[in-house]
Amino acid sequence: xxxxxxxxxxxxxxxxxxxxxxxxxxxxxxxxxxxxxxxxxxxxxxxxxxxxxxxxxxxxxxxxxxxxxxxxxxxxxxxxxxxxxxxxxxxxxxxxxxxxxxxxxxxxxxxxxxxxxxxxxxxxxxxxxxxxxxxxxxxxxxxxxxxxxxxxxxxxxxxxxxxxxxxxxxxx
Length: 172
Prior knowledge:
The protein is an alpha+beta fold. It has helices at 22-25, 35-46, 145-164, and strands at residues 28-30, 53-61, 64-71, 80-81, 86-97, 100-102, 107-110, 119-131, 136-140. Strands 2, 3, 5, 6, 7 and 8 form a 6-stranded antiparallel sheet that branches. Strands 1-9-4 form a 3-stranded mixed sheet.
């Protein structure tokens, strides 16, 4: 589809309070999991993995999407990739990406198909995810039972803190 063929969307306001969660918006598909991944994900979910992050799809228009993701302190984000390019903008908090420390107003770009992960800082991190896609996949590369055991312990250790945590943008 060329830019001339793309559907036209009129002036629109999107309110964060009305934004659906990432899974509710059904814009992300999950690649098939190995048996170890499936068991590991059950383990981390039981330990509170879902309490450690919040993702809201702020905008999902033809050819463009914007997601707000809040990863709480110590959230064990799996090594993963997506089938679309993504530009990340750090709104608040900080993160470690490889050997790089990023903070508010820093950005990073991840091309489609490139595996990555990051570690939220001590107050967590809020990022905006900009994509030229309304549908994208999630391919999990964390395949070791050791990873999931450690991630489950991290989730359990942080569960109560995560439940009462405030986003870094709301901290004084």
